[in-house]
Amino acid sequence: MKGEIINKVANSSLITFNLEDYYKKGERKAFDISPFLLEGIVVREKEFRKSVKEFDWSQFENSYVALHCSTDAIVPSWAFMLVSLSIVPFAKQVVHGSLEDLERELFVEALSKVAYEDYKNERVIIKGCSQYPVPEFAYTIVAQRLLPFAKSLMFGEACSTVPLYKEKRK
Fold it and tell me: Which of 6, 32, 51, 154 is geometrically suited to a Cys-Cys bond with 161, CB 3.0 to 4.6 A?
């Protein structure tokens, strides 16, 4: 048929690996423990425990929480543990660190569960655009984990890819 439009992308054997499929949906919140410290820098156990006990942790309901201290205080490990145990009943997950550390932890956890062997001998495109924020390091992890299995790896969209790897012909 003359002039027929054929969608070569749809008919190709390319498989798209979409990192946003591994983005855990939910609100991200940071919690700074420095207001629980004397002058923002000293942990006084009795007062610290009282502050933790009296705080309304329900505001973290169904959230992912990054637990940190914004001051240069030397905070004992038990203090972060105590706060995290108060948040856990409400939050989906708590990470000690920044919001970036939280995002890293969420992606590393999700990407560790992928069955990369399912991509054996496949031509794989690691999708570049996403609706959700995908940290740059996640692309590197996926490329490395797909390398032993994929026949070829590309980055971008099916209509415009950047070749990354192609298996040598035998």
Answer: 154
Contact 37, 43 (CB under 8 A): yes
Contact 33, 47 (CB under 8 A): no
How does the average pLDDT of the chain come out, rounded?
Answer: 91
User: Both 19 and 39 in a single domain?
Assistant: no
Domain holding 55, by residue range, is 27-91
Could you write out the DSSP letters of every residue in 10-70?
TTS-EEEE-GGGGPPPSEEEEEE-GGGSBTTTB--HHHHHHHHHHS-GGGGTTEEEEEE--
| Cα–Cα distance for residue pair 123/81, rounded to 1 Å | 45
Do 27 and 132 meet the contact criterion of CB atoms below 8 Å apart?
no
User: For the chain, how many structural domains are there in total?
Assistant: 2
